[in-house]
């Protein structure tokens, strides 16, 4: 982590501590395009993962981005805001604050149902709208909801099918995507690759290299 960003680490920790367990703060380093610090981690991101800012046409001349809405790996709705950090008038990082608002959405839904009020908040453009983390999260939540399932309670066969369906959607094209999918499904990375091998063999009719 470059020196200029190190000063923001206590700020990240303080924000996450003040709003725990609802806030996660992620610090991105622009020079390496990677995650260099995470406080209050609930997204299952890891240090050193690519920030993917180069894939979304990110404009470092912006100062504050958001608020915008995202979805977490387990379906929780996240409200986020990002700030571009500078040193000597040069952008060096991005500090993202993610707040879990799923509980508040539940309260709002209950109140809306009670007074028969319809409608909802407009979805803001996403900073990471092309981020494969977001695409994987959206696909997993659609896949589980459409089957009346929870990602935290999938059986082995259901996880195998989900991995196969993710593969068909091209979800494994992102850097470190297999590692991310293995974490959110609670699988060893070798098991994910084994499921991919089985899915490929099923499509071609060839016997898989290994069992489950």
TrEMBL record:
YheO-like domain segment(s) = 5-105
Q: Which Pfam family name is an example for this entry?
A: PAS_6
Per the database record, which ranges form the Transcriptional regulator DauR-like HTH domain?
136-197
- Look up the domain of life of the source: Bacteria
Transmembrane portions of the chain = none
For this protein, the record's PANTHER family field holds: TRANSCRIPTIONAL REGULATOR DAUR
Q: What is this protein called?
A: Transcriptional regulator
């Amino acid at each position: 982590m470059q020196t200029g960003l190190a000063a923001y680490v206590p700020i990240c920790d303080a924000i996450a501590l003040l709003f725990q367990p609802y806030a996660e703060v992620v610090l991105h380093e622009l020079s390496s395009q990677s995650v260099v610090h995470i406080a209050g981690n609930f997204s299952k991101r890891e240090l050193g993962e690519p920030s993917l800012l180069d894939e979304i046409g990110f404009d470092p001349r912006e100062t504050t981005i958001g608020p915008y809405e995202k979805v977490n790996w387990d379906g929780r709705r996240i409200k986020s805001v990002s700030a571009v950090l500078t040193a000597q008038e040069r952008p060096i990082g991005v500090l993202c604050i993610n707040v879990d608002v799923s509980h508040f959405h539940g309260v709002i839904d209950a109140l809306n149902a009670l007074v028969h009020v319809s409608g909802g908040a407009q979805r803001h453009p996403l900073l990471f709208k092309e981020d494969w983390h977001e695409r994987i999260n959206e696909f997993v939540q659609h896949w589980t909801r459409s089957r009346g399932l929870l990602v935290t309670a999938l059986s082995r066969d259901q996880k195998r099918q989900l991995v196969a369906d993710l593969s068909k959607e091209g979800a494994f094209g992102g850097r470190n995507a297999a590692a991310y999918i293995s974490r959110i499904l609670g699988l060893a990375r070798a098991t994910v690759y084994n499921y991919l091998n089985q899915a490929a063999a099923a499509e071609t009719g060839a016997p898989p290299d290994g069992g489950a």
